[in-house]
């Protein structure tokens, strides 16, 4: 099989398993894994129109994690339970930490990299 964009053709390549869950299906416990697949191209008819519209809206806009928003009474709150400010083009968007982690993992990682110092 040939490689294309770091993925094997005609075979799904898993970057990593993100989490797992168990659901009941037909009276039996079935385990599901949430996976991050390799980057690949998909025929447009297989992509929901809402996702294509979202992509086109964001295309070419700089996305940057500004940081957590702290309310007066939230000084002890873990960052994972905080709201995060994102700069998308000229706009600011507020999202939960989980939403940012799922939708903008690279930008979140850059945010942490720029604030991490070696000891």
State the share of residues found in helices, binned by percent: 10-25%
Strand residue content: 35-45%
Strand order of the largest sheet: 5-6-7
What Rg do the Cα atoms give? Answer: 18 Å
Quick one: overall form? Answer: extended
The tally of structural domains comes to: 1
Major sheet characteristics: 3 strands, antiparallel
Kindly report the average pLDDT value: 83
Residue ranges: pLDDT <50 for 5 or more in a row?
none
User: End-to-end distance, in Å?
Assistant: 45 Å
Strand tally is 7
**Total number of helices:** 3
Order of helices and strands: EEEEHEEEHH
Structural class: alpha+beta
Helix-strand layout with pairing:
Layout: E1 3-4, E2 7-8, E3 14-25, E4 28-37, H1 49-58, E5 63-69, E6 83-88, E7 91-96, H2 97-103, H3 105-115
Antiparallel strand pairs: 1-2, 3-4, 5-6, 6-7
Comma- or semicolon-separated keywords:
119 residues; single chain; two-stranded antiparallel sheet; extended
Care to describe what's here?
With 119 residues, this protein is an alpha+beta fold. Helix content is 24%, strand content 38%. It contains three helices and seven strands. The strands form three sheets. Strands 5-6-7 form a three-stranded antiparallel beta sheet. The termini are far apart.
